[in-house]
Amino acid sequence: MSDIKTYPVPQQYLEHTLINNAQYESMYQASIDDPENFWAEQARAKIDWEKPWDSVMNVDYKKAHIRWFEGAELNVCYNCVDRHLASKADQTAIIWEGDDPKNDLSITYRELHQKVSRFANLLKSRNVKKGDRVCIYMPMIPEVVYAMLACARIGAIHSVVFGGFSPESLKSRILDSDCQVVITADEGLRGGKTVPLKKNADKALEGCPNVHSVIVVKYTQADIAWQESRDVDYYASMEAMSDDCPCEIMSAEDPLFILYTSGSTGQPKGVLHTSGGYLLYAALTHQYVFDYHDGDVYWCTADAGWITGHSYIVYGPLANGATTLVFEGVPTYPDAGRFWDVVDKHQVNIFYTAPTAIRALMGQGNEFVNRASRSSLRLLGTVGEPINPEAWEWYHQVVGETRCPIVDTWWQTETGGILLTPLPGATQLKPGSATRPFFGIEPALLDSDGKTVEGAGSGALVMARSWPGQMRTVYGDHDRFISTYFSQYPGYYFTGDGARRDEDGYYWITGRMDDVLNVSGHRLGTAEIESALVLHESVAEAAVVGFPHDIKGQGVYAYVTLMSGVDPSDALKQELIKLVNQEIGPIAKPEMIQWSPGLPKTRSGKIMRRILRKIASNELDNLGDTSTLADPSVVEQLIKHRLNQ
Ligand code: WT7
């Protein structure tokens, strides 16, 4: 691919970087040749352990048995907070920037320690113990970080549910992991609008009889319903709590958190991450990928409800003693210059966001960028979906004025941390490529027969060996863990993505190979949306696929077959959109609903989504083999009534 532009490591960068290319190559080789030694060394250097491990790794992909640092003991909260007190008590741990630009806060490591200790005692006062699950349904305020760390401090397992999810989604997540305590706020704020979190939680909890305590941060002071025996006023209770809460000593393999994510079938699954390996991997990747130096101001714009927020707002940066910026707002409020204003206001050095935000801002014109100086910026990053070269170039030229390398980081909820990425001082960049593997990562591409593709070529992206941040199981369903990730290609972890490797060994992600959508960097299962649609009494059947969307990356396209005798109408369309909103949340709303008297099915009744995807994407001359369809004329009908985007 000689016509692809490459960008060498900037000269001024080389003087400042943690590692250059020669160091990357030798460290990478060492991590592959002798992983036990490599990871043991990193673990000793990066983490404070209460007790060392008996074995570094114990992995069997056939049984999906994955263990790291067995026998070792630590506390994750201690590593993220307490151990920094000796040298960094007065350093800012968290900069909070509110939705309203007038609101911000700065929290030192000393203050963080006090808040987290009190919060941990508050949880204990509600009888939360090691191993209990606690659901966190919060806006992006500092208390969401305190809540996560307070759980880690006492060994409770948190399950953060994104504040944009509906009561129905919240309920199913609470029930799946039997959370008995919920932490929420009266309301959240986003883009000048309120989000009724407590009201949503109240609704969800009608179906959750085991929840005995709801800790409520009265943030906006909105009028909310209150159940005296169940609801706990966070601010009032914190005052009475002691600052002293010893850290619970945990095994390296004790669970740290559960985070739900969508798959190609069924309801979202509870991805389980454990303590030692996860923290090591989050901290190490945060340091090297972002070339993090002491004193840097680091900003990841994700929400704490996603894995990016867990690993790269909370655990990675705080384990490294960084200053991490927590942003409550959205990129376009009060206007499309918000990101760059915040960069100037807090002198941000490292900035990490999603391609969908970059594309949206690119469409608003350069004035919003240029009115800010951005001179503090040194490094830019992206995550969550493929970045198109046009958006990459704009980010590089306009936002970073060509002086900031861009790290396009590929990873997943399941991987705990970044697996494919440039290292800013080491890697020559190619716009649109996540480039090369991080230390200890051995990617491979497999063809449709499961054979390894050597050299340049394409295939299913798998990992040939484990890394410390890998998920350990699907909460409560180890069989699902095995069947989803380890059965299609025995001996490998299957990512669900396809990829191409070029002649320089760089990886180019080509997208999901399964029925998972990526809408604005949010992961959605087509099956979940279909289940929501068929709840409507007028709907007989529904099939959902993705279509290319300029800003969101993908949009949701639904083919809906109505019950016989029901007439299609715009009003019905609106009802269906509302239903999806209610069942899952606004991020899952179909952009397009095509009334489809019939769906393309094989003779055995299986819907041929391949064809539906092609029609939705307007790739009509390339439909592939339709001869196995029970009724090929269905396809012509669908094409005739296809909706234009
Ligand atoms: C899926 C994982 C990782 C945190 C955010 C998303 C896609 C992620 C990239 C990238 C191309 C990417 C993949 C992956 N993806 N990063 N840099 N380039 N695609 O986590 O919700 O678990 O989604 O996001 O398809 O499988 P997630």
Approximately how much helix is present in the residues?
Answer: 25-40%
Q: If you average the pLDDT, what whole number results?
A: 96
Which strand order do you get reading across the main beta sheet?
12-11-8-6-7-14-15-23
Nearest-angstrom radius of gyration?
24 Å
Compounds present? 5'-O-[(S)-butoxy(hydroxy)phosphoryl]adenosine
What structural class do you assign from the helix and strand content?
A: alpha/beta
Q: What is the straight-line distance between the termini?
A: 31 Å
Number of strands: 30
- Summarize the main sheet: 8 strands, mixed
Count of runs of 4 or more consecutive helical residues:
21
InterPro entries: Ac_CoA_lig (IPR011904), ACAS_N (IPR032387), AMP-bd_C (IPR025110), AMP-bd_C_sf (IPR045851), AMP-binding_CS (IPR020845), AMP-dep_synth/lig_dom (IPR000873), ANL_N_sf (IPR042099)
Binding site for ATP: 384-386, 408-413, 497, 512, 523
Cofactor: Mg(2+)
Catalytic activity: acetate + ATP + CoA = acetyl-CoA + AMP + diphosphate
